[in-house]
Amino acid sequence: MRIDILTIFPRMFAGVLGESILRIAAEKGIVEYHLTDIRDYTTDRHRSVDDRPYGGGPGMVMKVEPVVRAVRDVRARASPEGRLILLTPQGETFRQARARELAREKRLILIAGHYEGFDERILEILKPEEISIGDYILTGGEIPAMAVVDAVVRLIPGVLGSDESAGSESFSSGLLEYPQYTRPAEFEGHAVPEVLLSGDHEEIRRWRLEQAEKRTKTRRPDLWRSRAGGKEAKGYDDEPSAGA
Ligand SMILES: C[S@@+](CC[C@H](N)C(=O)[O-])C[C@H]1O[C@@H](n2cnc3c(N)ncnc32)[C@H](O)[C@@H]1O
Fold first, then answer.
1. Does CATH number 3.40.1280.10 belong to domain 2-153?
2. For residue 184, is it left (φ>0), alpha (ψ between -120 and 50) or beta?
């Protein structure tokens, strides 16, 4: 997969893309990251990417010309054109189901905004998909872009080893994940549940499913209800529910 990120702060990405799973995915040749500085598409002496809003009001607005020029140029650098995604708090909330869908693409182009937001004509002309990472406001779209890239890349086949499989993680089947333990078997009077030490794989599987269901019901009733209409849950290999 080729991932293009358009931003006015390309240097923010070095740490995140250069470590852990995201770095390994690139080293394995499964994914390529390409950063583009939107300022490179300005034409004035000050390299301005923002301007005052028409009609007045606080803050600055991201200008239409550099963003549209940058997207057109980046699109033309490779094929396919890919899915164009604009990070905005006004977009659809990003969920695991969307991450799974994006992980099947050959190419993604992400646009990170800043200031008070985008000149609306950017949306009219480019018609990007709009994604929000949650109901809160961040300073810019860089951290949201990193969150989307991370969630997507780890789902591309071959990125995670079988030991780190995403199959049983929270949301993979519309359930939160079961509780996990590692050594020691007891710490300050807190013991690991007996069943996990039993070696009985079928019992362990049943216990984990039960725990996952219990957690989901109490912590995320919304998720539980949307999982097959809240009907009997079958296990981690089910088709994901719409809410995941
Ligand atoms: C300070 S925010 C602008 C918020 C805008 N004034 C509004 O009320 O919708 C600047 C940029 O950060 C990014 N951003 C902030 N919060 C976000 C979120 N929750 N999800 C995705 N992008 C976000 C977007 O690219 C946005 O254009």
1. yes
2. beta
